[in-house]
Specification:
heterodimer; A: 147 residues; mainly alpha; 2 domains; elongated; B: 341 residues; alpha+beta; Phosphorylase Kinase, domain 1; Aminoglycoside 3'-phosphotransferase, Chain: A, domain 2; 5-stranded antiparallel beta sheet; 11 helices; 9 strands
C-alpha cells in the first residue's frame, strides 16, 4: 500500500516543516510544533519495527516467567494468540499482560535472599528492551525554557 | 484593562480581563492600571508562563513594571503547589540567592481560572547549554562555579526562620525515602501501563536509601536552563515549583547526574570530581560516592516519572508536548546501578 503509513507520516512532517513552520509566529506554538515534528520523525523511522519488537519482547518475557516458575498466564502466550483485533493489537495486548506479570514477579521477589539471579535476569531483559525500543524520543530542550 | 488579546487560542481568551481584575484587587488605591503585551512564553514544560508589563499611575507618577504570571495548566508534567512556590520566592527575598520578587498569589484560581502567582520578570535569558556553548572556556568555568555557589548559598538559608517552615514538611534523616515515596505517588497517579523498569529501580532505591545528615532547601530542578543570564552574570534562579525540604545531596545528585552532563559539566575542567571537591570545601559536608550515586539514580528515576506524567497528560489531550517511554533513562539507571555493585 503506497504511500505506506511511514511514508505518509514522513510526508506530513515535511509539509509541516517546510510550509507551516515558517508561518508560525507565536513562540509557544513554534516550540510545540518543533516537538510535533520530532515525534513524527521518530514515528516514521520506528513504525515498521514495532511488531517485530513486541514479538521478541513477548517471547523473552514468557521465557523469563517460565524460568522463574511464575509461568506466563494462558491468555498471554503464545504472543498474540486467541485475541481479537489486528496482529499488532494482539501483540500489544499480550505485551501489556506479560509486563504486568513481570512487574508482579519483581514485587514477589522483593528482598528475598537467593533471588539475585532472577532479579538480574529480569533487569538484563529490561535493559535489552530499552536498547531495542523502536520509538526512542529524548525530549528536546526548549528554546527559551521556563521564562 | 488588558492591552491586547493573546495569540494563544480560545481557552485563554478570558485571561486579559481576569488578570486586570486580579491586579486591580491587589492595588485598589492606584489611580490607573494597564496591563500591556500579555503573551504566553514558550518553553515552560510544567506551568504556563505569561509575560506582561504592568503600568501603574499613582498620583502624577507612572511606573512600568515587567511581570510574569505563572499559572497551573489544565494538566502538565507535575502537580505542584503555587502557594509553596510563592512562599519560596518570599523566603529568598532577604537572602543572597537571586530570585524573582513575589508579588501576588491566586492560591485557588478564584481570579485567574487556575492557581497562579505573579512575580517580577527579571532581565536575562536562560541557556540550557551555557556551560558547553559559545562562551570562552574560562567564562564557562567561572559561570559553573557561580552556579554551584548559588546552590551552596541556597542550602545555607536558614529555612526554619522563613515561611517555608510552615509550608513544607521536614523529612529529617529519611529524606531519601520521603523523596522516593513522593515521586512514587506521582508515578501511580499517571502511569498508563505496567512499568517493571520503574519497579526494579524503585526497589533498588528503597534497599539502598542513605540517611540525610541535615535538612536544606532543595530547588528540585537546578540547571542553567532555569537561570537568567545577562552576559556571564546570573540575574535570577527560576522555576521554584518543585522546591521542598530535603537532603543536601539531592540537588548535588541532580547536577552530577551523568545523563545531564552536557548541561552541568565542562569536559576536563568541571566534572563530577571538581564539582564535589568545590562543594565539599565550601560547605564542609562529607560527600560519599555511594550516597551521591544513589541520588544520581534517584534523579534519573524522578525524571522518568516526570516524562511518564507528560506522556499521560498528552494521551489525555491535556498537554501539548509529546513524550514517549523514557528508555534512555532506563538504560542509564541500570548502568548506574550495575556500577554501584
Amino acid at each position: 500500500m503506497r504511500p505506506t503509513v511511514a511514508e505518509q507520516i514522513a510526508g506530513l512532517g515535511r509539509i509541516l516543516a517546510a510550509e507551516v513552520r515558517p508561518e508560525v509566529s507565536s513562540e509557544y506554538a513554534q516550540d510545540v510544533l518543533a516537538g510535533v515534528l520530532q515525534s513524527l520523525e521518530v514515528l516514521a523511522s520506528g513504525l515498521a519495527a514495532i511488531g517485530p519488537f513486541l514479538a521478541w519482547d513477548n517471547a523473552a518475557m514468557t521465557a523469563i516467567l517460565r524460568e522463574a516458575g511464575a509461568g506466563a498466564q494462558p491468555g498471554a502466550g503464545p504472543p498474540g494468540a486467541g485475541r481479537a483485533g489486528s496482529e499488532l493489537e494482539q501483540l500489544n495486548q499480550a505485551n501489556e499482560q506479560l509486563r504486568a506479570q513481570l512487574d508482579g514477579l519483581l514485587a514477589q521477589l522483593g528482598d528475598r535472599p537467593g533471588q539475585d539471579q532472577a532479579r538480574r535476569a529480569i533487569v538484563a531483559h529490561l535493559d535489552e528492551r530499552a536498547s531495542r525500543f523502536p520509538l526512542r524520543l529524548v525530549p528536546r530542550m526548549p528554546r527559551r525554557p521556563d521564562l | 484593562m488588558a492591552g491586547r488579546e493573546t495569540d494563544a487560542g480560545p481557552p485563554d481568551a478570558g485571561l486579559p480581563g481576569q488578570l486586570a481584575r486580579f491586579v486591580r484587587a491587589q492595588l485598589p488605591d492606584a489611580d490607573s492600571l494597564k496591563i500591556l503585551g500579555l503573551q504566553r512564553r514558550g518553553g515552560g514544560l510544567s506551568r504556563e508562563n505569561w509575560a506582561f508589563d504592568l503600568t501603574v499611575r499613582d498620583g502624577g507618577r507612572a511606573q512600568a513594571i515587567p511581570m510574569m504570571l505563572r499559572r497551573d495548566p489544565v494538566a502538565g508534567l507535575l502537580a505542584t503547589d503555587r502557594r509553596v512556590e510563592f512562599g519560596a520566592l518570599q523566603a529568598l527575598a532577604s537572602t543572597p540567592v537571586p530570585a524573582p520578587v513575589a508579588y501576588w498569589l491566586d492560591e485557588d484560581g478564584t481570579w485567574l481560572g487556575f492557581p497562579s502567582l505573579i512575580m517580577s520578570r527579571e532581565e536575562g535569558q536562560p541557556d540550557w547549554l551555557a556551560l558547553n556553548g559559545d562562551r570562552p572556556e574560562n567564562d564557562r568555568l567561572q559561570l559553573a562555579r557561580e552556579l554551584l555557589d548559588h546552590l551552596i548559598g541556597l542550602q545555607a538559608v536558614d529555612w526554619r526562620a522563613t515561611v517555608l517552615a510552615k509550608l513544607l514538611d521536614d523529612p529529617g534523616p529519611d529524606a531519601a525515602l520521603a523523596a522516593v515515596r513522593f515521586w512514587h505517588g506521582e508515578l501511580l497517579r499517571h502511569q498508563l501501563e505496567p512499568l517493571p523498569e520503574m519497579t526494579a529501580v524503585r526497589q533498588w532505591l528503597l534497599r539502598h536509601a542513605p540517611q540525610s545528615a541535615d535538612t536544606v532547601i532543595v530547588h528540585g530542578d537546578y540547571k542553567p536552563g532555569n537561570v537568567l543570564l545577562v552576559g556571564n552574570e546570573i540575574r535570577a534562579v527560576l522555576d521554584w515549583e518543585t522546591v521542598h525540604l530535603g537532603s543536601a545531596l539531592e540537588d548535588l545528585g541532580w547536577i552530577t547526574n551523568p545523563v545531564r552532563a552536557r548541561e552541568h559539566q565542562i569536559p576536563g575542567r568541571w566534572e563530577r570530581a571538581q564539582i564535589v571537591e568545590h562543594y565539599a570545601a565550601a560547605t564542609g559536608r562529607r560527600v560519599t560516592q555511594r550516597e551521591l550515586l544513589w541520588w544520581n539514580v534517584f534523579s534519573c528515576w524522578k525524571l522518568s516519572v516526570i516524562v511518564i506524567s507528560g506522556l499521560s497528560a498528552f494521551v489525555a489531550g491535556q498537554f501539548d508536548r509529546v513524550h514517549l517511554l523514557p528508555t534512555w533513562l532506563f538504560k542509564n539507571m541500570f548502568k548506574l546501578i550495575e556500577n554501584a555493585g
